[in-house]
Write a structure and sequence with these properties.
Blueprint (H helix, E strand, L loop, with lengths): L9 H6 L4 E4 L9 H13 L3 E4 L10 H34 L17 H9 L4 H8 L3 H12 L1
Parallel strand pairs: 1-2
Length: 150
Amino acid sequence: MRAPSAPRSWHWRRAHEIDAMLVTELSRWGRSTQDLVQTLDDLHGWKVSVLAQTGLSFDLSTASGKLMRTIMAGLAEFERDLIRDRVKSGLAAARAGGVKLGRQVGQRPSDKKAKRVLGMHADGLSYRLIARNVGLSKNTVMDIVRRDFG
């Protein structure tokens, strides 16, 4: 005999039985100030406390708690922007130094099967049939053919 299945709303109810959430660091928890503020406001509305492993916690119902939320969100966005700037500058320096970025010809796992794919394509087989015979996806077969003729 099978156990009765849970009602559809069970997961939703279960998800809202959380009292507190532990995060490693609040400043790394959101992608932008707006994102982090919205998330923290949602959690506050659901009566879920947010605690950081560093020991930082604040009550969003107070003025000082709202200030801390905004400061942490601003720091998160600032940190994300710094990382983005460093990555862009590193990529520019690598390009200036002559480094070829991205996957080079012959490095794709499908490149080992490219000769066989192109032969089947020249014989007039469909992309789907080639994909089935070679063990690749139809899109990968199309990409191999496009790269050969592109």
